[in-house]
Amino acid sequence: MASLNVGSLGEYIREQRRHAQYSLRQLADAAGVSNPYLSQIERGLRKPSAEILQQIAKALRISAETLYVQAGILDEREEAGLELRAAIFADSLINERQKQVLLAVYDSFLKENAHLGAHDEAEAGTSAGRTKDDPEPRGGTPNAHHR
């Protein structure tokens, strides 16, 4: 697990709070944490738990995973798709239900592609008794050159 990067995490939360046009007190109330505690998080003086980060993310309408990456709880490589999720959550032109529908469609595509990728890899190794390193046959019947 990566170390907790509380300084940049606090700055990131402050930036997101300002983008959402929340005062410190408003975000603290929406996230269910105390005003002084949130202030300490923003200033990099406190290390919030994953649960507190999730509450803050929900109040800011951003993905908790985005905050986990900022905090060093998730590795950067696990961030795939998080920018898209963050953009969807931040979009003020669509409502919450529409955001959830978009995310559900995106997740279904990821699952489908993961399933197809695993299926394609298995097929590549067993198709017509070939290994994935064997060349593809060149059309016609298998014995077309033996007349």
From TrEMBL:
Query: Which residue ranges does UniProt annotate as crossing the membrane?
Result: none
HTH cro/C1-type domain location, by residue?
13-67
Alphabetically ordered keywords of this record: DNA-binding
Looking at the record, which segments are called Disordered? Answer: 118-147
- Which Pfam families does its entry note? HTH_3 (PF01381)
Which Gene3D superfamilies does the UniProt entry name for this protein?
Answer: lambda repressor-like DNA-binding domains (1.10.260.40)
Q: Which domain of life is it from?
A: Bacteria
**What is the recorded name of this protein?**
Helix-turn-helix domain-containing protein
